[in-house]
Amino acid sequence: MANWCVINCSNSYYKLQRWMQSFCEVHNSTKEHCSCQKPFDLLPFPNEKQADTRKTWIRNVNRNDSQNVWIPKSHSRICTVHFADGKPTLKNPYPTLVVGHNDLKTARKPSQNRKKHRYFKNSGPGHHSS
Questions:
Q1: Distance separating alpha carbons of residues 72 and 2, to the nearest angstrom
Q2: What is the Cα–Cα distance from 104 to 35, expressed in whole angstroms?
Q3: How many CB atoms lie within 10 A of CB 35?
């Protein structure tokens, strides 16, 4: 199972498969069998033999918190939308677009249901206010 490393990136193998199974009206076939360009590809991280490139990718993804350094696994992937040229190139070999952040808690908005629950937490049958 692949592991996507950029926080809040919704691209996935599932999304790519759904796109490939959709119908292309231009080529009158599924996109899997036509010459349409994929919306993105999923790339593995450079291996340890490419240590400098790997370190830069990890630093740019910026998933570190104050206690742990994130290290990609062999199944970690990053999609090509995070590269300036749509893929790693000699001019732009590193992911630089919409990549990572340090504070994961700020990425999530509070649920409206949780707010209601907190508001009514101490009310209801059997609870008496002083």
A1: 11
A2: 39
A3: 9
- DSSP code of residue 28: T
What is the arithmetic mean of pLDDT over 78-86?
94
Report the alpha-carbon distance of residue 116 to residue 14 in Å, rounded: 34
Which residue type does 103 have?
D
Q: Which tokens go with 64?
A: 């570190």
**Which tokens is 72 given?**
């990609």
Q: Of 44, 55, 38, nearest to 3 (Cα)?
A: 44
In this predicted model, what pLDDT tens digit does every residue of 2-24 receive, in sequence order? 667 888 888 999 999 999 999 99
How high does pLDDT run on average in the chain? 78
Give dist(CA 50, CA 94) in Å, integer.
Answer: 12
pTM reported for the whole predicted model: 0.68
User: Residue 3: phi, psi to the nearest 5?
Assistant: -120, 115
What are the residues whose beta carbons fall under 8 Å from the beta carbon of 34, sequence distance 6 or more?
Answer: 24, 26, 27
Structure token pair of residue 81: 């939308």
Distance CA 35, CA 27 (A): 8
